[in-house]
Amino acid sequence: MRDRLISAKHTTRYALKNGFHHEIAIKFHHEGAPTSILPRATRGRMQEGSDLRVLRGGKVFLMAEPKSPLDVLIVGGGNAGLCAAITARCAGARVLLLESATKDLRGGNSRHTRNIRAMHKAATAYLTGPYGEEEFWEDLLQVTGGETNEHLARLTIRASEELGEWMPANGVRWQGSLRGTLHLGRTNLFMLGGGKAMVNAYYNAASRLGIEVAYESEVRELKIGDKEFLSAVAICNGAAREFNAKAIVVASGGFEANIPWLKEYWGEAADNFIIRGTKHNQGQMLKELLQHGAKPVGNPRGCHAVALDARAPKFDGGIVTRLDSVPFGIVVNKEIKRFYDEGEDFWPKRYAIWGKLIAEQPDQIAYSIVDAKALPLFMPSVFPPVKAGSIAELAAALGLDPSALVAVVDKFNREVRPGAFDPASLDSCRTEGLHPPKSHWARAIDTPPYYGYPLRPGITFTYLGVTVDEQARVIMQGDRPAKNIFAAGEVMAGNILGKGYLGGFGLTIGSVFGRIAGREAARYAIS
Questions:
Q1: Residue 43 belongs to domain spanning
Q2: What's the pLDDT band for 424 if we cut at 50, 70, 90?
Q3: Which residues of 474-508 are buried (b: 16+ CB within 10 A; e: fewer)?
Q4: For residues 185 and 188, what is the distance between their CA atoms, to the nearest angstrom?
Q5: Residues 398, 515: one domain?
Q6: Do 400 and 505 belong to one domain?
Q7: How buried is 154 (Cβ within 10 angstroms: 0-12 exposed, 13-18 middle, 19+ buried)?
Q8: Phi, psi (degrees; rounded to nearest 5) at 88
């Protein structure tokens, strides 16, 4: 059995505060079972005759009586879940959103975003020129190497054109592109106040629309029968509650914060990964859907992973810990060997491969080396660079062999060929006779002071997910869609991102499929 109730001869009722800030009735049973198996705080809230639920894994929780059925249950309070909730509510559905984080940390990885990639036909006050469907598609095709569902990808691209108006209609404000963001001023819209302001705007919109929100509410189990969602069991402030709904939208992210799960595919190397976003993305809903027969999609080792400052915190460091220095210098591993072309393509098309590249290096560590003339060209990390008057001194400060780093830099400098340096184009500054080459923006590292950043793999989200169709319905084994189970955001992004990444595109996928999932879930629920 997936769970069991400890039955009783006697029952009593008492009230317990839950995530909706009002009293609910809880019924408990016990049959001579020692209350010592419960947490002390739980024992203190019990009365004689209590209902307990033992969830998978053996944890015991107070069990609240099911609440009256909802139209649409949203699991996950980030961008995708909020877009789904707002859309479903505007379609007339009664909506409840469950967010596992506290109110202060709500929003998942969306809190750390900064911009969104969107199709548009002309320049605007915030975009410097047009970005049409075919160019968008070619950009995606290039970074994924063709590992994408073209039908869903083009659907996303076309639907993204509506976001420039839909997002401000729900409280988001735009601003011009930021300095150092590298070639995004034409393709991406920037949120004033970043992702945190966007999330707050959406929660304000949800409140105005009458959407119920429960914080610190982590869904642990889904009850699904014959490809149909029946109910969800969540832990809400220490009590297990069962929520019935006519439809569910799963928008609870990937499994990047679940280190043991990452180790299944990456081994011990995963211990050295830094998780850029929320610690709450444990992949529980992904695991539940797969166990219930959802068709998987995406490479289990695939992920959006960037070069992150190695001094960043293990979780939730956000976008300010990312390093964009790579195209303007060289990168070496702990053995002081270059291992990839730092100037292969524009940074928004390549920055998300560098985390995986570093993950494949010894001890998952690398070092970005630049000189004084490169420093003004990129957005700095929140941590200051290591600074030195010579390459040998910089190596010593980074804990590297000085003579070896001097030799690598000298060889690189000798192979740099003259060209017209232009950070805004794929310029003619390159190396010759060097392996790996540097294809663009190659300039001699010869202007002191010199700077170095230690780098670690920074995981944003994982690509393993569930297969969906154009209605955001989860596809089950046998290639048949679930009746009332929808997915949006990182949990289904692997349909479109088989590998690689485009800057700001994760938010696009979450926004588009969040709106589709909300619309279709509401249509099913109230039809």
A1: 4-65
A2: confident
A3: bbbeeeebbbbbbbbbbbbbbbbbbbbbbbbbbbb
A4: 6
A5: no
A6: no
A7: middle
A8: -65, -40
Terminal alpha carbon distance of the chain:
33
The reply to whether 61 and 162 lie within a common domain is no
CA–CA dist 130, 116 (Å, integer): 15
Residues 143 and 83 in one domain: yes
> Between the CA of residue 37 and those of 31, 40, 54, 58, 361, what are the distances in Å?
13, 9, 11, 10, 45
**If you count them, how many residues does the chain have?**
527
State the DSSP code for 432.
S
Query: Rounded to an integer, what distance in angstroms lies between the CA atom of residue 354 and that of residue 274?
Result: 13
> pLDDT digits over 327-360, tens only?
999 999 999 999 999 999 887 778 878 999 999 9
201 lies in the same domain as 161: yes
In this predicted model, what pLDDT tens digit does every residue of 288-326 receive, in sequence order? 999 999 999 999 998 888 999 999 999 999 888 999 999
* Alpha-carbon gap, residue 56 to 474, rounded angstroms: 24
Alpha-carbon distance of 106 to 77, in angstroms, equals 7
Task: Give the CATH number, domain containing residue 160.
Answer: 3.50.50.60
Q: Which residue has the tokens 């929003």?
A: 107
Cα separation of 257 and 170, whole Å?
A: 30
pLDDT digits (tens, 9 = 90+) for 91-127: 999 999 999 999 999 999 999 999 999 999 999 999 9
> Do 164 and 120 contact (CB within 8 A), yes or no?
yes
Report the distance separating Cα 351 and Cα 423, nearest Å: 15
Instruction: Give the rounded distance of the alpha carbon of 7 from its chain centre.
Output: 41
User: Which CATH number does the domain housing residue 339 bear?
Assistant: 3.90.700.10
**In which residue are the tokens 């969540």 written?**
234
d(CA 406, CA 117): 40
d(CA 53, CA 368): 52
Indicate the helix (H) or strand (E) that contains 451: strand 450-462
**Gap between the Cα atoms of 413 and 177, Å rounded:** 33
CA distances from residue 176 to 125, 136, 179, 188, 507 in whole angstroms, order as listed: 8, 20, 9, 10, 18
Of 44, 65, 86, the residue that ends a domain is 65
Q: Are residues 504 and 448 in the same domain?
A: no
- Write down which residue in 458, 484, 500 finishes a domain: 458
How many structural domains does the chain have? 3
Say if CB 80 and CB 511 are below 8 A apart. Answer: yes
Which DSSP category does 354 fall into?
H
- Our measurement of the distance from residue 127's CA atom to the centroid of its chain's CA atoms, rounded to an integer in Å, reads 25
What's the CA gap between 312 and 321, in Å, rounded?
6
Do the beta carbons of residue 55 and residue 221 sit within 8 Å?
Answer: yes
β-sheet bridge partners, residue 221: 233
Please indicate, yes or no, whether residues 54 and 191 belong to a single structural domain of this protein. Answer: no
User: Which segments of 360-504 does DSSP mark as H helices, in order?
Assistant: 391-398, 402-415
- Each residue of 367-380: pLDDT tens digit? 999 999 999 999 87
Record the pTM.
0.83
